[in-house]
Amino acid sequence: MARELIKKSQARAFMKRWKLVNTMEKQALRVTSVEEKFNQLAILMISAGQLGWKMKLEDEVREVRDRWNELREVYRV
Prior knowledge:
The N and C termini lie far apart (54 Å). The chain is mainly alpha-helical. It has helices spanning 8-31, 34-50, 53-75. Helices cover 83% and strands 0% of the residues. It has one domain (8-75). The longest helix is centred in the first third of the chain and has 24 residues, at 8-31. The protein contains three helices and no strands.
């Protein structure tokens, strides 16, 4: 499988574009109201539930809590 290497100029152009994207993203976040950010978060949380991620997260949280409880018992904290 042959890999193509990019030229320095291509890499610099790539980085320049992503810096521009990041700048624009930060600007958009600055002018977005708290209410709109909250609505966006709510939509993401609903989407996570619909995609079945909530159950996976609950399982992971339970696993982490169990580990912490084991550590507390071992170190008597």
